[in-house]
Amino acid sequence: MKTEIELKQLVKEKYSEIALQSKDLNAASCCGAGGCSTEVYNIMTDDYSDLEGYQPIADLGLGCGLPTQFAKIKEGDVVIDLGSGAGNDCFIARKEVGPTGKVIGIDFTEAMIQKARTNAEKIGYTNIEFRQGDIEQMPVNDNVADVIVSNCVLNLVPNKSNVIKEIYRVLKPGAHFSISDIVLVGELPNVLQEAAEMYAGCVSGAIQKQEYLNLITQNGFSNITIQKEKMIHVPDDILLNYVTKTELEQFRNSGIGIFSITVYAEKPEVKSCCGPNCCN
Asked: What is the 3-state secondary structure (H, E, C) of 62-96?
């Protein structure tokens, strides 16, 4: 089994390559993973093109949701995007925060940071900043963000609890996050797990949905809500290389599978002293 350091290095190498790939190649699978199918569709991605602020040059087709659509971003907010890639969600958020707000994108990969900075310069945005860093140790001070967003990134991180702790640290009291990610429901048969991981690279780091939600609760967040959920459909012609038609039909009807969820949660407000004895 690979160590956390080795897994992170694999992610860095992979996403350095992805930064140079086309959106069509990335969106044909998930997280830039390879795979061929006669079914034509995007396995994970949602369509951003109707959202205000969308910039096609920054869309690499790597997401699994639309967290900025659900993030309740207001004008003047400070928004941080974890795993900001080429800047896609940052540019959507920038439209919401307006000229008085600020957007900070954090990414592990130098090639992605350079691509995002180039895109921001082309568009002419000045209140967006891209910082290279590990989201388990964010290059951001405490209590900075009004909103944190992330799109199909935590599933790539070996220690998800560390990231959630960092999200809690960086959010202001009373602030919130909206994160889209990949989770599992039920135990996938081994052959299907292997097929899914081959076709959709980010499945390999996904954990059970309830475990994911439990980590958020255990790290102090409240008002946890699933804002959107969809099953990820790995094509039949891929899976039939590994199972029979009968086994595939049983799997499709089982409710077990790979899901994209968008999760909202809040960092609680600091309780104020409101009576003559409450501070004793």
From this structure: CCCCCHHHHCCCCCCCEEEEECCCCCHHHHHHHHH
Closest CA to 153 of 83, 211, 93, 106: 83
The DSSP line for 140-209 is: S-TT-EEEEEEES-GGG-S-HHHHHHHHHHHEEEEEEEEEEEEEEESPPPHHHHHHHHHHSGGGGG-EEH
- The residue type found at 224 is I
DSSP-assigned beta bridge partners for residue 207: 183
For residue 159, which amino acid is it? N
What is the overall mean pLDDT for the chain? Answer: 83
pLDDT class of 146 with cuts at 50, 70, 90: very high
Task: Report all structural domains of the chain as residue ranges with CATH numbers, in order of start.
Answer: 4-265 (3.40.50.150)
Q: List CB contacts of 170: < 8 A, sequence separation 6 or more.
A: 80, 138, 140, 141, 142, 143, 144, 145, 148
From CA 189, how far away is CA 179, in angstroms rounded?
A: 27
Show the tokens assigned to 119.
Answer: 């895109």
Dihedral, 88, 92, 97, 100 alpha carbons, nearest 10:
60
C-alpha dist (Å) from residue 49 to 73, 76, 160, 237: 18, 24, 30, 29
Q: Which amino acid is at 14?
A: K
Q: Rounded CA gap, 204 and 193, in Å?
A: 8
